[in-house]
Structure formats: C-alpha cells, structure tokens
Amino acid sequence: MNPEWTYFLILGVSLSYPLAQSFEKRVYMYRKFPFIFPGILITGIIYLVWDVWFTEIGIWGFNSNYTQDIHLFGLPLEEWLFFLVVPYSCIFLYEVLRLFVKRFHYPHTARWILLILSLAGIGSLPFLYGKTYTFTTVSFTTLMLLLQLVQKTYRTWFSGFLITYLLSLVPFMVVNGILTALPVVWYNNAENLGLRIYTVPVEDFIYLMGLLLAAINIYQLMLHRYASPSLREKMNLDQVTGF
Questions:
Q1: Mode of pairing for the β-strands spanning 185-187 and 60-62
Q2: pLDDT digit of tens for each residue in the chain (243 aa)?
C-alpha cells in the first residue's frame, strides 16, 4: 500500500462499522442525521480554525509521507475528515450505549464529576500559561464543562456522555497511537507538557473531551427541541434514572 493513503485508511476503518450500522433499526441513526450533523459541523468549524492556527505557528504539523497531496488552508484533506469521522463514530457509540445500557443516567454522580472537573480545569490554568496547546485545550474543555453546569445537563445526558467518552478512549488510543507513532501528526513539545501515554500527548485526551462535549451538546439540544414525538418515545428522551 502507498504510505500516502495511511491517514485516509485509518479514518476509513474508523468510520466503516458506525456507518454500516447506521441503518440498523434499533439504533435509528439514519433518523437522527438532521440532529447529529449540525453539532458536528459547528464544532468542526471551531476546531478547524484552531487547527489551521496551530499548524501555521508550528504547534503541530503533518507528515506529507502519510497524507494525500490535497490541502486546504494548510491542512491535509484527511484532517478535515477527522472532524467528521471521530465525532460521528463517538455519537454512534453514545446511541448504542443508550440503547443497551439499562442504567445510563446518574444525575447526582454526574453533577459532582462536573464540579470536580470544572474546578480542576480552572485551578490548573495559571500553571499552564506558556504551554499553548495545553492552555488552550484545558481552557476550551473547561468552558464546555461549565456550560454543562449552567445547562444542568447532568440531569439528562452528561453521565451517558462520560460513559461514552471513557469507552471511546480505547479506539481513540489505537487511532491516535498510530497517528503519533509513525508519525502522521507531530507535536512541538515546547508547547505542551511533554507527557505522553504511549506516543499520544495527554492533551489529546482533553482535546477529545472538548470536541465530543460540544458536538453532543448541540446534538442533544437539537433532539430535545425538534425530534418528533415518535422518535422521542423510541429514544426515551425524557427518561432519567437517579443514582
């Protein structure tokens, strides 16, 4: 295989199963497309602007040996697709878990986790100044966490998000492990903490949380506002289980 297809192939494999199962009648993903894609697109725009900026100033970059020679605003085509494939795959996982996990809502536990994570993010920021990737990633993700407190999403879907996020770390570690080991993506360690799990910077895990929080937050808002009564009933949107 030509190594230039590496990044594209990784994304294709990541998307293949969620996309193939999107028309499975129990999951109903195909009926949720109008609610899923606004969140992915809005979040993707934010992250792509961020990506373009960081690539331009050398916070990270891409190895052209492993990407197609198609670029837009300095980013390879595969990086644009990344912000479609990863959120969609994780929202698919979220919906599968919603279907099969009986106890998906833990509002009281979720509230405490939100508070702890938010305070940890705020408290760490003064110590991260000067590490551009770390500081911006923690800032954005903390902002998303605080937004969940304001919206009180811990009453409905945040605990389900946490379960999804934790399970998504397994495929994320595989995908990012390959991307950073080759490397398809390189990082300027002067702009991060220099701490890695295998070859993946610890900031990437916080980066993923912010990305998924934003996308799923918009998805949930769209569902609760615009979903038909029949779809709401099938998804048990109003069902909340305490802990």
A1: antiparallel
A2: 689 999 999 999 999 999 999 988 888 788 899 999 999 999 999 999 999 999 999 999 999 999 999 999 999 999 999 999 999 999 999 999 988 887 778 889 999 999 999 999 999 999 999 999 999 999 999 999 999 999 998 888 999 999 999 999 999 999 999 999 999 999 999 999 999 999 999 999 999 999 999 999 999 999 888 777 766 666 665 554 433
Taking CA atoms, 27 is separated from 91, 129, 185, 217, 228, in Å, by 11, 43, 34, 19, 16
Neighbours of 12 (CB within 10 A): 14
The residue among 62, 97, 95, 60 whose CA lies nearest residue 81 is 62
Question: Are 6 and 182 in contact, with CB atoms under 8 Å apart?
Answer: yes
Q: In the chain, where are the structural domains located?
A: 3-235
The residue among 199, 182, 176, 200 whose CA lies nearest residue 11 is 176
- Looking at residue 45, its amino acid is I
**Residues 67, 184 contacting (CB under 8 angstroms):** yes
* Token pair recorded at residue 167: 């399970």
* Both tokens assigned to 229: 């009564």
- What single-letter amino acid sits at 211? L
Question: CA-CA distance, 220 to 227, in Å (whole number)?
Answer: 10
The one-letter code for the residue type at 88 is: Y
